[in-house]
């Protein structure tokens, strides 16, 4: 009778513990802002990539001085033209695509490095943990923004891939620390101890046992890292230390706002890029916050 009661209690507990997907779904059902944000973020990302495939990059960046600074809706230009007579509507698609590509690529590299190093550091502890954390501490005291500006200045020819690698090289430390703290607590749990006792390899425990249990937190961190990476790239391009001016990006378009005459008299050159950036960044952040609440709820449920 006692065994039957325990089995029923265990079964009930399993049934009452929803999956990660259900917890996330329930959180989004309660948060309408997160739902709208998710729709907007997906729409902007898809529009950027699909739109850039529909238009020829040569046509979007082609200079036509005769159509210089045409207002939106005139001459067949939906969003007007810039000082080179480039179609801002087409140009915006390529700018958004490049910025989003950089943001997602940087975030994926950061997350990969952070998860691997953080997992190894938190799981093994001891001298391995000490070495990795000292490396993180050293890297964090480096003025990353200043070093990035110097690297971009001294590199003769740089492009999207160069910017991705440079940014990823200086922004992986926070994720590493986060993953280390998460794995540190998981490494002392009963299921890890049981796996070690049964002779399961450390690699399998780390990447098949521990990581799936913190996957929701990894996804949350990845989402927020994408938003911050897009913002950093935009800031660098705005300051003139990101992508070259001839390469479309949201930052290079917003950089036109540094000209007082363009701020008010030629607002269509920079304002659409600001609108896309703010909408995308806020949407991703709201989605990330919803995922974080879902992860916290999952942890409280056990």
From TrEMBL:
The keyword Membrane applies. GO terms for cellular component: plasma membrane. Keywords: Cell membrane, Membrane, Transmembrane, Transmembrane helix, Transport. Gene3D superfamilies: MetI-like (1.10.3720.10). It holds the Pfam family BPD_transp_1. InterPro entries: BP-dependent_transpt_permease, MetI-like, MetI-like_sf, OppC_N. This is Peptide ABC transporter permease. It comes from Lacticaseibacillus paracasei (Lactobacillus paracasei).
